[in-house]
Amino acid sequence: ARVGIDAGGTLIKVVYEEKGYLHYKYYPISKEKELLQWLQIFHSPAQFILTGGRAEALKQKMAEAKIVDEFSVICAGANYLLKEEGKQRSEYLLMNVGTGTSFFIHKNGKSERVLGTGLGGGTFIGLGKLLTGKSTFAQLADLAGDGSKEEIDVLVKDIYESSSSPIDGNLTASNFGKAIFVQGGASDKAAALTNMIAENLMLLAMLLIEKHSLSTIVFSGSGVSRHDYFQTRLAEFSNMFGYEAIFLERGKYSGAVGALLSA
Ligand code: ATP
Ligand code: MG
């Protein structure tokens, strides 16, 4: 059987074949030992293909494994998942929100990483913890869903008040700009943080989409999975700019699937 492993900065994603089906699981970096134990009992013969920033480090602790570059396999993984989910597209911008965020262009049968930013899932849980004291992704994502970003952000209409503004009054004029005047609840801060990340990732996406004449954004990475408010904001910005937004249900595994397929 083939086993694809994407060892990222935060989570290790594993995809393996059994009876013709793919199975998916993940381990936090801190549970690497458990993964290695599971790999030992995994029925042999197995072929292990590793990818991600920590692939080299993981390989040292394994018997035999091949390493592939994640930038060159992630779109193949996304293509597979798109097809599985009945949403095949021949060209798109892939936004992979991991610990950090990477952007890929898939066009004319080729894939390329074109941009990256440190604004990503690590920013959400890291700054989220500093702002609210909560430190798990699930807690922070739930908080964000209950909050109102308007309590923390200065909106265009807050500045223009009654006079007519040259741009949509509901746009953000200043992320966290109200925090100098108000305390703000934990959920409001988590919402404002989520929105700040979504807005700025979408601004980068917009420039890339226009530059490469695309119209679809595919979202992957654990940073967007199971974070409803983040997905809602990303989808709203996509709509506003006239782009199609696709959230892969198995998007956490695009790198691991890509690695498996490369065997
Ligand atoms: P990178 O690709 O940047 O090296 P990675 O591959 O480990 O990192 P992902 O697994 O795609 O990244 O996403 C990690 C992010 O997903 C975290 O920063 C966090 O925001 C979010 N996340 C979702 N579930 C969890 C979880 N159970 N534990 C920690 N973070 C989680
Ligand atoms: Mg990753």
Automatic annotation (TrEMBL):
The keyword ATP-binding applies. One of its GO terms (molecular function) is ATP binding. Signal peptide: none annotated. GO terms for biological process: coenzyme A biosynthetic process. Gene3D superfamilies: 3.30.420.40. Keywords: ATP-binding, Coenzyme A biosynthesis, Cytoplasm, Kinase, Nucleotide-binding, Transferase. One of its GO terms (cellular component) is cytosol. This is Type II pantothenate kinase. The lineage of its organism: Bacteria, Bacillati, Bacillota, Bacilli, Bacillales.
